[in-house]
Amino acid sequence: MRKVYSIILVLLFYIMSNAQTQKIILIGGSSAESTNGWFELGCDKLTVPYTNKAVAGESIGDAANKMFAGTLYTKAELESMTALVLMYNQNVNVFDPSLTKENYTDYTMPFNSLTDNVIAFDYILKKYTSDCYNLKNDPISTSYQKQYGKPAVIILCTNWHDGTAIYNNSIRLLSAKWGLKLVEFDKYIGFSSASVHPVTKQQYSLLYASDTIAINGVEYGLNPNKGVYSFIQGKMAKIFKSTLESILP
After folding, report:
1. Alpha carbons 195 and 103: distance in angstroms, whole number
2. Tally of CA atoms within 13 A in the half-sphere of 156 that contains its CB
3. What is the CA radius of gyration of the chain?
């Protein structure tokens, strides 16, 4: 009997601990990893715990491969996650329904981290949603026996400026298809690729970037200057915070 009580106490502690440690988890590449600052600043303003799992140089394909291997998040992190945020900035297409499969288990793994952008996004959205739903069958989950399991809150992000039109346009289509909230950094960042700077005669994004990318023969900023005191990082933090305030429970 004492052993039974001990097990019950452990289960109650597990459930209560996870219920009290709700957090936001971010996955992404170089414009999302922790030396940037926008994600951390935004979450601090929201007073919500967070974990930044973004890695510079990694693609959505890399994240999908980690999810397949079971290393993207732990079971405890899945239980405590308030929202999963995805932020990538490669100027690639991420929306093409003709390439996707009905079930995430139908994909051949691992993904090519350079080319499998469409199906990697599809895999992550379907796998994470399924993982959350299936918590309804886990006796030690706070979502146990709930009709919907755990609500899968997924938040997508545009690139930080509108120069990467291929990615930004396709991530909007993906957001609309799934009914997901989109952090529109490019819409509210404060400048547009439609106009060049009146003094430099170049793209505005170059003023705030640490490196560049050429798109159709035009130079744009690739990664924004990093650090919590950077103008762009502060602006992105405000945009991120404002978006999440409209959806977080």
Report:
1. 43
2. 25
3. 20
Domains of the chain: residue spans and CATH: 2-245 (3.40.50.1110)
Q: Which residue shows structure tokens 């957001």?
A: 175
The rounded distance, in Å, linking the Cα atoms of 120 and 90 is 14
Contact 167, 110 (CB under 8 A): no
Work out the pLDDT band at 1, boundaries 50, 70, 90.
low
Q: What angle do CA 209, 25, 230 make, to 5 degrees?
A: 25
Amino acid at 139: P
**Reduced 3-state DSSP string for the chain:** CHHHHHHHHHHHHHHHHHHCCCEEEEEECCCCCCCCCHHHHHHHHHCCCEEECCCCCCCHHHHHHHHHHCCCCCHHHHHHEEEEEEECCCCCCCCCHHHCCCCHHHCCCCCCCCCCHHHHHHHHHHHHHHHHHHHHHCCCCCCCCCCCCCCCCEEEECCCCCCCHHHHHHHHHHHHHHCCEEECHHHHCCCCCCCECCCCCCEHHHHHECCEEEECCEEEECCECCCCCCHHHHHHHHHHHHHHHCCCC
- The pLDDT value recorded for residue 85 is 98
Rounded Cα–Cα distance for residues 186 and 145 (Å):
41
95 CB contacts (<8 Å, ≥6 apart)? 118, 121, 170, 171, 173, 174, 177
CA neighbor of 72 nearest in space, from 63, 80, 84, 81:
63
Global pTM? 0.90
pLDDT by residue (tens digit) across 11-26? 444 444 444 457 999 9
